[in-house]
Amino acid sequence: MRCVYCYGDGGEYAGKGMMSEETAFRAVDWLIENTKSSEKVNICFFGGEPLLNFTLMKKA
């Protein structure tokens, strides 16, 4: 996906950045919209030290 906020910065392990609030909300909205209502949804935060932006994790 080559996300610019990724710890790998599209494969270049040097970029610094944070996922925007808009992107986080869109990702969660997409997950909910594309999951059957009978399915249990689990979200796993992985890579890029998501706990550094814990406020955004709680909002999303």
Q: How would the blueprint of this fold be written?
A:
Elements: H1 21-33, H2 54-59
Descriptive notes:
This is Nif11-like peptide radical SAM maturase. The chain is mainly alpha-helical and 60 residues long. The chain has a domain of 40 residues. 32% of the residues lie in helices and 0% in strands. The protein contains 2 helices and no strands. The mean pLDDT is 74.
Spans of at least 5 consecutive residues with low confidence: none
* Helical percentage: 25-40%
Instruction: Decide which structural class fits the backbone.
Output: mainly alpha
Biggest sheet: strands, sense, closure? none
Radius of gyration: 13 Å
Mean pLDDT metric: 74
Instruction: Identify the overall geometry.
Output: elongated
Helix tally? 2
Elements, N to C (H/E): HH
Approximate strand percentage: under 5%
The beta-strand count equals 0
Span between N and C termini?
20 Å
InterPro entries: Aldolase_TIM, rSAM_sf, Sulphatase_maturase_rSAM
Organism: Tectimicrobiota bacterium
Protein name: Nif11-like peptide radical SAM maturase
GO molecular function: oxidoreductase activity
